[in-house]
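B., you asked whether I could sanity-check this one before it goes into the benchmark set. Here's the sequence:
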Amino acid sequence: MSSAPDEKPEGEEAARPAAPAPPSSGAARPARPPSPGRYSMSTEGSTEVAAVRIDSTRMPAVHASSPPASKPARAPGAAPPLPAPPPLPAGARAKTAPMPGRPPPLPTPPPSSRRGPPPPPPSSEPNARAVAPPAPPAPSSPSSVRRSTLSFTSEPPPQSQPPSKGTGAAALASARPPSMPPPSPGAAGTPSVRPGSLRPPPPPKRESRPPTFEGFDEGSIAFAFDALMSEGTAGEPARAEVDLAPVRELFAELAANHMRHVRDFMIDVKWGEAPREWIDICVPAVVSLRRAADRLGLGELAIGLEMFGAELDGASPANLEAPGEGASRAIEGAHKDRLLESYEGLVTLLPQAFALDRDKSQREAVIIQSLCLSVPDVRKVTIDKLHAAGLTSLSVLFEAKPAEVAQVAGIPEEVAVRIVERFQAYRRELQNASPQDARAAEREKLATLTAQLREQHDGYEEAAGGWSPDAKAKKRDLFRAREETWLEISLLLARFGEVDRLQGIEKVPFAQRIAQLTEYLEEARDKYRTEG
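And here's what the prediction gave me:
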C-alpha cells in the first residue's frame, strides 16, 4: 500500500520529543483546526482532507508573463531566432555520431564570428584612398557577438566631412611617383582630349546605285547594254556622281556577252582559218564597246579597243593595200600577227570578256575528238595514238599529210587518209562559213540535227521492243545513226563555246539530251541577235 508523500512513519512520530509549550500569557487560546498544508487541494477552514494531492516540489512555478520552458528568453527588440534545423535521418545520425576511441570533432564557430567587417562605402572624393578603413572589431565569443548585435544605441552615426582641397592635392602629390612630372597650371582647367578624337570625321558614304535604263525590256541584258552605250544619253566621261564600281562589274558581265562573236572570230584567227568577211560583223561590236568604256571612264580599255578596231579595218577586204591579198579569204600573214598582238592587250585589261585560252583547250579537244570519231574505223585507241604523237591542235592537223600521220602515230595509212580528209573538209567549212545573221546558219543546222536525233531515238526505242531479225537490224542501224548525229551536234556546241553545257548533256540519256537541246535553242533565239 503506497503512502502519501507527506505521511511519516509512526515510529518517527513517537521518537520525536514533544515541543515545549509556549508560555501562556493569559487565558488559554482556542485550538486552531489543523491546516491542510500546501500540498492539499482543500480550502482553508475545511476539515475535509482532499482526496487528491499534487506534488508541487516537482513542478516549476508558472507565471503568466514568463515564456514557455521550451523556448529561451529573448530580449525585447531582438531579432527572431533562426529556425531549428530539421532532424537528421537515422543513417545520417549514425554517420555523425562520434565513434569510440576517436576524439570528437572541433566545434564550428557560428557564421557571425567568421564574417569580416563590412566594406566601407565607396567614396567619389579624390582623396578617398588617403582615408584609413575602420579597425576590425576584436574577436569575441558568440555570446558577446550576439549581445553586441542585439544592443541598440540612440546616438547618430558620425558624419564624414569632405576633405579640403589642400588635403586631396597633398594626398595625390604623395601618391604620384617621382618620375612623373606635375601637371602644368595652364592645363588644369582644360578638359583632357584623347589623341583619337583629334582625327577628322570620316566622309559620309555616298549611296551607289546602278544606272537606270529607261524602257528596260523584262531584264534583257542586251537591251541594257545598248542603253548604256547609247549615243543620246547625256553625261561626260569620268565625271560620275556615284560610285562606278558596281557599274563596271556589270559592264564586264555585259561585255562578255556582247563580244561573243569577236571571241569566236579570234579563236579562228589564232588556231584555225578565219575568213575576212567576219570582220564586218566584229567592227560594230568593238566600236559600241569602245564608246561605253569611254563614257564610264575606262580610258585604257577605250584606247585598246580603238587600236584593235583600227587593225580590223586594216584587215578588211575593202581596205587591203596589196591587190594580191584579195584572192585569199582567210586572214594570215602580217594582218594576223597584228590582230593577235592588239587583242592580247584587251585580254590583259578585261579577261572576263576577251580571254581565249581558258576555252581554247576544251573547245579544241572536243572538236578534234568529234571529227576523229566521225571517221569510220576510228576508235579511242586511234585518238590516243594521235595525242601521243603530238597531233593535238587544229593547226597541225590542217597541215598534216596522210603518210606523215600514219608514220608518226603508227596507224594504218588508209585510216590516216580518212582522218586527213575529214579535217580538210572541216577547214573548207570554216572558210565558206557565212558571217551573216551571226551564226544563224549554225543555229539552223543545230535545230535540224536535234529534230533528226529525236526521230532516230524514237525509232530506236520502237525497234528495241521487237525480237525479229528485221527489228534487230533496224535497231543496230538506228544506234549508229544516232551516234553520228550526236557527234555533229557536239561539234556545233563546241563551235558555239558551250563546252560546259555539252559536258552536262552527255551525262544524261538521249531523251533528256533532246529536251535540253530544245531548251537551248529557245534560249538562243532570244539571246543571239543580228548585229550590223
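One thing to flag: The first helix runs from residue 10 to 15. Otherwise nothing jumped out at me.
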